[in-house]
Write a structure and sequence with these properties.
This protein is α+β, with helices and mostly antiparallel strands and 193 residues long. It has a single domain (2-140), classed as Nucleoside Triphosphate Pyrophosphohydrolase, CATH 3.90.79. It has 4 helices and 11 strands; from the N terminus they run αββββαββββαβββα. The protein has helices at residues 2-13, 73-85, 138-142, 173-188, and strands at 26-37, 40-48, 59-60, 63-65, 92-97, 101-103, 108-117, 130-137, 147-154, 157-166, 169-172. The strands form 2 sheets. Strands 1, 2, 3, 4, 5, 6, 7 and 8 form an 8-stranded mixed β-sheet that branches. The chain has a 3-stranded antiparallel β-sheet with strand order 9-10-11. The protein starts with a helix and ends in a 5-residue tail after the last helix.
């Protein structure tokens, strides 16, 4: 995992982050977290409850809306991760940042960070926000048979929508866009899991 961590850190630091305007949008930040499970690298997802305000029942990365008390969007992502799944900031090593993302329907401007969870990993989930945790092997996410793309119309524009399948779970929407971006830039740099 140390070699993987160093390679991802190098890949992310060698590229320029693409930023998007955020005027009039709700700022939010998420963490794409990598952990080791049974000797293999995995990405951590959460399945949201049906009682949360936004994205009910969807699979997402830990994170949420920026609070006035947060000094930065990274602080937002770390605070929300602690609140949602009980992982403190000192158990996360930040490896870099991904490109900005926006959600057209819910009007969020998302900043995404990549981090490595330091072992041992234990979760203490918020029953209000999180139904369950999902740890997906990176090799499964890189397998083309677990990915599909559809074109959806929103207003008068057509947009690609990505889907990743892991058993009965389907990762889609902004989470899938962020995931695809991460997989594309790491695979484009010759990193396969």
């Amino acid at each position: 995992m140390e070699e993987l961590k160093a390679r991802i850190k190098n890949i992310l630091s060698a590229r320029k982050k693409k930023t998007l305007p955020s005027k009039g949008m709700k700022k939010a930040a998420v963490l794409l977290l990598i952990l080791e499970k049974d000797g293999a690298p995995c990405i951590l997802f959460t399945k949201r409850t049906e009682t949360v305000a936004h994205h009910k029942g969807e699979i997402s990365f830990p994170g949420g809306v920026q609070d006035k008390r947060d000094k930065s969007l990274l602080e937002t992502a770390l605070r929300e991760t602690r609140e949602e799944i009980g992982i403190p900031a000192e158990k996360i090593e930040i490896l870099g940042e991904l490109d900005d993302n926006v959600t057209k329907v819910t009007n969020f401007h998302l900043t995404s960070y990549v981090g490595m969870l330091l072992p041992p990993v234990t979760y203490k989930t918020s029953n209000i926000e999180i139904e369950r945790m999902i740890e997906v092997p990176l090799a499964v996410l890189q397998d083309p048979s677990n990915f599909r793309e559809e074109i959806w119309e929103y207003g008068s524009e057509h947009h690609p929508i990505y889907f990743y399948t892991y058993g009965k779970d389907v990762i889609w929407g902004a989470t899938a866009r962020i995931l695809k971006h991460f997989l594309d830039i790491t695979a484009g740099s010759g990193l396969y899991f």
